[in-house]
Amino acid sequence: MAHGDNVRQAVRASFVFDCLDMPAAAAKHNVPEATARRWKYAAKEMGDDWDKARGAQMLAGGGIEEVSRQTLALVVLQVQATLQTINETADMPPAVKVQMLASLSDSYLKLSKVATKLMPETTQLATAMDVLQRLVKFIRDKYPQHAGSLAEVLHPFGEEVSKAYG
């Protein structure tokens, strides 16, 4: 079945702008994946690199923050897995454990520093949420008689914070 140019453009838009993977972009427009891949390859041969366009769109459209979040989450998982391996491996020499921990710590700190720069909204939201948690603890510890009033406004205000920073 032949597909018109508008369908090809729609598949490209789904891949580039919606960041769907190729199978999903093709399925969304009822096009065989092989056909969509052929279009992508032919476009690249003509100077329209869908992957580069997608990367530029992610950077321009704020996608870098999402990519940074995902990367940070993956690193945290790797940190946890490495710590578990260190703890569960009884015959690992202590010097190797210390070296692994030092390397892990250094990598995590460097990534956190970069993430702070790449994810300003996430950093602001984390700070705002920390302030709210500190306020709740402060009220609970110093002014427990006002806890009910705080609880009444905290949830709707939390939504406002999320809108502003998240």
Automatic annotation (TrEMBL):
A Pfam family per the record: DUF1804
Organism superkingdom: Bacteria
Database matches in InterPro entries: Phage_D3112_Orf24
Record-given protein name: DUF1804 family protein
Organism: Chitinimonas viridis
